[in-house]
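Dear support,

I submitted the protein below through the web form. The confirmation email said the job was done, but the results page showed an empty box. After a refresh the structure appeared. I'm attaching both so you can tell me whether what I see now is the final result or a partial one.
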Amino acid sequence: MGQVSILLLESEDIAWFRSEPGAARGAAAALARRVGLDERRSGEVALAVSEAASNLVKHAVDGAILLRVVRTEHQAGVEFLAVDSGPGMADVPEAMRDGMSSAGTLGIGLGSVARLADVFDVHSLPGRGTVIAARFWATRSAGQQREPSVAGLTRAISGEQVCGDAWAARIDEGSGPAALLMLCDGLGHGPMAALAAAAAVQAFRSGRARQPADVLDEIHRALRGTRGAAVAVARVEPDAGRLLYCGVGNVAAALIGDDTRSSPLSHPGIVGHRMPQLRTFEYPLPPGGALVMHSDGLTDRWDPDSMPGLLRHLPVVVAGHLLRQAGVRRDDAGVLVAKGMW
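What the results page shows now:
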C-alpha cells in the first residue's frame, strides 16, 4: 500500500437528548458559545439541532440526539449525531430537497442543515432507521480538511449520567504512520466505572509504548486501585496492510471487508487486577474495510450486510448505526470505528 497520512479528531461526548427538542437546541447553542463559536454560528448550530430533534419527535422510533465537542490542534467545534430506529427514508436525495421539511412542518429541512454544517452525512435504511451527522467549526476554512479516520461513541446505561465506557486514539509516526486505538469498559457502571475508564484514557494518551501489549501493560499499572476494566488496544499500520491487536476482557472487535468479517481475539482477565500472559494477534487489513471495537453494551449480533452502503459513510455514522442496531439499555455502551486510512 502507498504511504498514507492519518487524521484524528479529539472528541468529547457531552449529552444524549431524547424527545427534548427545546433542551437540545438550548444546550447546542450554549455548547457552541462555550467552545468559541460566535453568536451567528452558534445560532446556526442551534437551528440545525432543533430541526433534527423535532424530526425525531415527529417521525422517529427510539430517537436520540448526541451533542459533542470536537477539536483539532488549533480550534474546537460542535458535532451532533441524530440516531433513530425507524421509519427511515426511502429517498434521501428527495428528503434533502429544499422545501422538504418534516412532512410539511415549518422547519428548515435537512438540505438547509447540510448547507449550514461544515460536514454533513446521512445514511438511512427504509423501515429500520436513520443516522445523521453534522459538524460545525467556527470558520468555514476549518471544514475543508480531510475527514478523520476514527470515531467513537459512548452512551451511559439508562438512569446514569456518566458512562463507564471510553475510547481514545493517537498517532505513532515512527517508521511509518500508524494509529493506536483503545476501547475501555470499566467494570460495572456509574461513577466508579467512569473513574476506571478515565484512568485508562489518561494512561493511553500519556504513555510512550507503541505496541498493543506494552500499551495494555501501561494501562494495567494505571488502573491498580480502581475497580478495573476490560481493555483492548489495536495498532493499525496502513503501509504494512496489517492490524496488531491485544485485548483483555469482554471487548469485541471485527475487521469488516466487502464480503469478509474476522474477529480479533481477547484474553480473559481484568486490566488493573488480573492480567494474563499477553499475546498480540496480527490480521491483514481488508481493502476498503473498517475496524470495529465495542463493549458488551452492544451485542455481537450486528450484521454489516443488513446495512447496505454503510461503509461508504463517515466513521461516526457507521458507529451510530451499530449503536442503533446492537446497543442495549441495560449497560454502558461504547463503540469505536476506524476506516478510510487504508
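Response: this is the final, complete result; the empty box was a page-load delay. Confidence is low (pLDDT under 50) at residues 102-106.
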